[in-house]
Design brief:
about 270 residues; alpha/beta; Rossmann fold; 2 domains; six-stranded mixed sheet; six-stranded parallel sheet; 10 helices; about 35% helix
Length: about 270
């Protein structure tokens, strides 16, 4: 019987996870299908029941459900245990629902492994939503010690500071003034998402050798990325992070480490034009 996988979130129509995973299912001749599962928060329990009954074999979770899924699960493991943020769920051999976090791996594998002298870098995380704990942990695992966070709602930052003791919290009003202090800036908000709002503050004071990373991949180039590229700032969109986190999710479900080949990259790029 064909296995079913999917992704839940809101908004969710922009997701290329079905394209990614169905490509790998075809490549490795796995009888399975991956689809978008458009659910409200009140309907998460219905998906959980389907997972427990094995009607669905595994799911990915995106905004805004990465933390909201946690109470429904039997156990968190590895990076999910540290971040309390889950983007991959599966049923283990003991029929327990396991929550994993592959975003941390995705960010490290895609970008942070290339950062030189990471222990001397200062990083700023913009946003305190579902992916932010993963971004902070990925920075820490990559050796970055000086990490600040900023969010319009400061309370969310204070909550994260309880989890990550050395985290520094900035006021939103300080951003344009203090932005010049950072070597790495990571957008962990949905600002810039296709058909959504983009940043409205001034990046003119950033360091010339700044590394700017966006966790968004659709569109491939947000207004902010385009603007910073024109200033010759080193920028990365979220596509590689998306692919690497998906690669690890695929492995957790199928025990196959899928290849990231040129045909896949061309396919994904064609969907983002």
């Amino acid at each position: 019987m064909k296995k079913k996988y999917g992704i839940i979130g809101n908004p969710i129509k922009h997701s290329l996870s079905p394209v990614l995973h169905n490509y790998w299912f075809r490549k490795y001749e796995i009888d399975a299908n991956y689809s978008i599962i458009d659910v409200k928060e009140s309907e998460i329990s219905v998906i959980i029941k389907k997972l427990k009954n094995e009607d669905i074999s595994g799911i990915n979770i995106t905004l805004p459900y990465k933390q909201k899924i946690v109470p429904h699960l039997s156990r968190l493991v590895n990076d999910a245990l540290i971040t309390s943020s889950v983007n991959t769920v599966y049923l283990n051999e003991k029929k327990l629902l396991i929550g994993e976090n592959t975003d941390v791996f995705g960010l490290q594998a895609a970008y942070l492994k290339e950062v030189d002298n990471s222990s001397k870098k200062k990083a700023l995380v913009v946003g305190a939503g579902g992916v932010s704990p993963s971004v902070i942990l990925a920075l820490q695992k990559s050796g970055v010690k000086d990490i600040s966070i900023i969010n319009r709602t400061k309370e969310k930052c204070i909550f994260l500071k309880k989890k990550f003791n050395n985290l520094k919290v900035l006021n939103w009003e300080e951003l344009e003034e203090k932005i010049k202090n950072y070597d790495i800036i990571i957008n962990a908000t949905s600002l810039g998402l296709k058909n959504g709002q983009d940043f409205e503050f001034n990046f003119d004071k950033t360091k010339e050798n700044l590394i700017y990373i966006d966790t968004i991949y659709n569109p491939l180039e947000t207004k902010t990325l385009r603007y910073l590229k024109e200033k010759n700032i080193k920028v990365f969109n979220g596509l590689n992070m998306f692919i690497y986190q998906g690669q690890k999710s695929f492995y957790l479900w199928n025990k196959i480490n899928p290849e990231i080949d040129n045909d896949l990259l061309d396919l994904l790029s064609s969907k983002l034009k």
